């Protein structure tokens, strides 16, 4: 399973819930400023790439002297193929300065995500109490009615600050 975790990068860890590949846009929430283009691919180590459904991973690659990714790299098959082929064919390499800018944004990520959550809750409360709005589907509003044990489970998933 592949999950785009861009908007919940600091809130949810899809790999802990069974995702095999997680992608994040470093341009949006990680950097927080839009000055640098970048992204992340995070892979789990339990997916069987040699299960017969992925011939580009199991068959030999003539562009890499007959390399079979599954035989050579086992659990690192996907990320090695992604890096090797994309770097060779497209060239997506982050410059040191852009890496620095994204790291600057990561330093404030938890503070920004906390504020995003608080702002979203205020907007949901406002809309929920507005006469022109028929309904609001926002999980956190419903948490007030939940038992404490359910709140704890949802807090772990939602990371309410």
Automatic annotation (TrEMBL):
Name the cofactor(s) required for activity, per the record: pyridoxal 5'-phosphate
Could you give a GO molecular-function term held by this entry? O-acetylhomoserine aminocarboxypropyltransferase activity
Keywords (alphabetical) are: Pyridoxal phosphate, Transferase
Assigned GO CC terms: cytoplasm
- One Pfam family of this chain: Cys_Met_Meta_PP
BP GO annotations: cysteine biosynthetic process from serine; L-homocysteine biosynthetic process; transsulfuration
The text of the family note is: Belongs to the trans-sulfuration enzymes family.
Q: Which PANTHER family match?
A: HOMOCYSTEINE/CYSTEINE SYNTHASE, HOMOCYSTEINE_CYSTEINE SYNTHASE
Q: What is the protein name given in its UniProt record?
A: O-acetylhomoserine aminocarboxypropyltransferase
